[in-house]
Each structure stands twice: as structure tokens, then as C-alpha cells.
Amino acid sequence: MSGSHACRRRPRARKGRGGGRRPGRCAASPRRRGPLPPRAARPRAAAGDMSPAIAAKEGGRQRRAGSQHHCLDLRGEVPPALALCGDVLPGGEAEALLPPPEAGSRGARDCRAELGSILLLLVLYVLQGIPLGLAGSVPLILQSRSASYTDQAFFSFVFWPFSLKLLWAPLVDAVYLRGFGRRKSWLVPTQYVLGVFMIYMSTQVDLLLGDGEGRGPDVVALTVTFFLFEFLAATQDIAVDGWALTMLSRENVGYASTCNSVGQTAGYFLGNVLFLALESASFCNKYLRFQPQPQGIVTLSDFLFFWGAVFLITTTLVALLKKENKELIPIKEETKGITDTYRLLFSIIKMPAVLTFCLLILTAKVGFSAADAVTGLKLVEEGVPKEHLALLAVPMVPLQIILPLIISKYTAGPQPLNTFYKAMPFRLLLGLEFAFLVWWTPKVKHEGGFPVYYYIVVLLSYALHQITLYSMYVAIMAFNAKVSDPLIGGTYMTLLNTVSNLGGNWPSTVALWLVDPLTVKECAGAQEQNCGTTVAAELCTKAGGSCVTTLDGYYVESVICVILGFGWWFLLGPKFKKLQDEGQSSWKCKRTN
């Protein structure tokens, strides 16, 4: 059977038993009982969010594209994709991976019997969240050391790997060492490299961050370093997601999603909120010490060394003690070549409805880019302690748990994009409110910091922002689940989620890059000097003057983004909603034998 796929608008139908017409089905398809909804990816924190521990950008984790079976020690040619038509588990995995227990087998397992596996998954997801949290804290550290917004834009590429991991996920799924284990073949070396890299960087990171006294941060080296951290964490995520499906029995596989959410959130909290609090001298002196000290309790170097050691110890224990569960590996596992996977992705994206969706969602979030990417950095620039912004994550957690449950009641119907469309203007207006908040910040600052009512206003503003963000986010995820072809649910859903995340990544990077060019500065105290470039600013300072901002590019950008956002809402929003009226055949991808 050929492994090629051809997507067309209207698949042929055949008669059912009752004489009616029903869509055709893959020849190798098992009898389907209907797909379970894929687990949505969580929003990921973006550089410069008001609270880096909570995402203001939907750059969430992505599930990998289907599940492929191939190994380095090939003992015979691996057959092409025969079982793309299985039921879909949460996360987009084919249910064919987990066949029902046979009669006389051990049957349904109580979760307590697999408590060790559940705890291991939890630990692995916590470790995954550590480099993500550290990467989210670096922009605030850079901002406190007067890094330019051009530097921040360059560093924002660090947050792209999780949105792009679809590009190498088929390789992780397909190539492995049979004797060592399909998932351990990637998990163990990836975590070893992460651990060694963290320990090595603990000796270099202080030099890369600069001393704040003449030697600035090496943004290029920091970007390369943390991009590799994120790339390795994304690769580890692919391996752990896949292992979870065979590590746990079919009856308990739902706990994998819980381990993912709890573990990654906990890891991000440790690597971001806890680190920023313990790294801050003012926070530690005020709340944790009796005698003030010039530094925090930990430094980034200390933190990297500690977690690097934890990675090495944990990985060694996993490599030696944990075996991949042979009982749960099916006899006929879903198999598919790497080339077929990429060919399938290209076939999906060529469909007119999918292509229209991709183009629209890639431009839909331009209007939020200034508010989402720059506001937090501006607040730090205006004197708000970065650890205080990070601690905003704590009261937001209950809201983030409750919001999806409430919003899903409105997005569960046939037109989830209506919620997206209705929430969009409110989120755009909050962008202007954020700009006002930044303008207001220096006016309420006093010698002791900021009054309590200021933080209450910030918290309320962020809570309103979260409501609009989650309304749009849950609506998009519901729509993606609704239109994804269940025959190839994992690949299809991952592709749509990847495009949605890229629609948030690139505007944030551009927004950060445009702040400096849009800012107007004058040289005060020195005639015939200007501050148009870095060199000119240095000449102004040498001449006895100082650069004074007369027009902050953030405010210009905020207004432009809101105008563009409302333009999209008026002109393209109705077309976006109209995608809901497309028939199911517009989204179906038919396999040709």
C-alpha cells in the first residue's frame, strides 16, 4: 500500500447499511467509535509579559505529529503508514497505539498500581519546565541591566522552538535504538546534554550577563544558549509525551495530561517565579533575611548548577532503573515513514480552508503584540521590581484553572469562533489600558516603591486581560479540535496549533524590535548633538549632555497595534468566522491507496 496522501475538498462517499451515504474510510482503518477531543496546548509565557510566569501569548506546547515507528537497527523494511485511521486519544495520539486489554489479561489497573510511573512522569515534566521558566526570567534580568529592545527582540527567538517542534517531531518518533527503548533513546541523551550544558553554563553565565558597570550583557551568546535549552526541552517533551502513552495502562493514560499540566507549571514556577524572588536582593532582605546582603540568596549561576546536577542524577536513575513497558506496546503499532509525515503535512496545508485559516490566524494577533510583548519590560524599566511582577503568577493560578472550564461552555457548540470574535475588541482596548498603566507607573512611585493600590490595579488589569486571552485561546483550540480530520487527528491538530502559536510569536518579536526605532530622543545639555544612534548617544554623554526621551516608541506602537487590530476585526474577522460554515468535507484529508 502506498504511503502517499492526497487531500481533496470532497471525498467520495459510499453507502452505509441503511442505504444512506457516508464518508469513505481508510481501508486499514479499525472500526471507529468517534474521536476523543485532543488536549489543548497551554499558553506559554512570552518575553515581556506583565507576569512572565503566566502567558500573555498563546505560544503553547505542541503535541507531536502522530506516532511513527522506525528504528536504527532495522531488521526488515518498516511498512508505510497503514493505521492513520485510529481513534484519537487526548493529545492527538491514535487509539490504535493502545489496544483494549484482552480477555484474561490483567485488565483494568488501579492508578495506585501505577503510582510510580505517574510520579516519574510528574518529575520529568517538572524538569521540562525548569529551562522554560529560566528563559522567561532572562528578559526581565536583561531589562534591569538596561538592555535595548532590539536586544530583547533578538532574545525572543528563544521562545520559538516549542512552536516549531513539529519540524523535527517525526524524527524523534521514528528513529530510535530498539534495545534501549523507543522513548529512552531520545529522553536519556537529551536530558544528559541539558544537565551537562547547565553545569557548564553555570561557570559562564555571569560573564554573559555582564557586570552592570561598563560591560553589558552578551545578548547573542545568551540567545544561543537559551535557544538550545528550549530546543532540548522541546525534544524531551516529544519523547515524554510519547512514553506516557505506553508507560501507563489504557485505563490510566488520562493521568498523563494531569502530570503534564501540573508538572510543567510547577517547573516553570520554580525556574521563573521562585528564581526571580530568591535572586532579588531587595526581596530576600525584606522577607527572608535578618541582616541585609548585597545579593540574593541564589544567583543564576547557582540555579543552573543545582538543576544541572538534578538533571544528571534523575536521568541516570531513569536510564538504569526504568524499563519501557513491553506489555503495553501493541503488536500492530501505528507505523509511518518520516517522508510520509512531511508529505501529509504539506497536503493538509494546501487545502483551501486550511490555508485560509493559517493566513488569518498568522495575522490575527498583531493587534496584541505591543501589549503582550513589551508592557512587562516597560514596567520594569519604570522601576517595578521584576520579582513583584513574577509573583503576580500566584493569585492568577485559580483564575487560569477556572476560566477554561467556564469558557468551554460557550465554545463547545458548532461556532466556537464567535467567542474569539467577541473577545477580540475587549483585548485590543486592554492594550490601550496597559499603555496608560505604563504612563501612570512613574507618577505613583515613591521612595519606598509603589503603593498597594497600584499593585491591585495591575492585578485587576491582568485578570481582565486573562479573561479575554483565554476566551480567544479556548475558542481557537475548540475550533481546531472541531475541524481536525479524526483519521489523522494527531498530525492535523498539531499543525493547526503550531500555526496558531507562530501567529503569536512573530508579532511579539517584531513589536520588541520596533520599540527603539519608533522612540525619539534628544540630547539635553549639549548643543549640536543628538541621540539617534548608540554612537550618537555616547557622543552626547561625552559632551556633557544626556539623552532624554521625548516620544516613547511603546506608546506609538500601542496605538498602531490597536488600529491594525481593529482593522483586522472589521475587515477579516467576518471572513474568519465564516470558516465555521465550511462543510466537514472542506477539512477532510482523504488517503489514496
TrEMBL record:
Catalytic activity: acetyl-CoA(in) = acetyl-CoA(out)
One Gene Ontology molecular-function label: acetyl-CoA transmembrane transporter activity
Renumbered residue ranges of the record's region Disordered: 1-50
Membrane topology summary: Multi-pass membrane protein
Gene3D superfamilies documented for this protein: MFS general substrate transporter like domains
Pfam families, alphabetized: Acatn
Subunit structure: Homodimerizes.
Family listed: Belongs to the SLC33A transporter family.
Name of this chain's protein: Acetyl-coenzyme A transporter 1
Species name: Falco tinnunculus (Common kestrel)
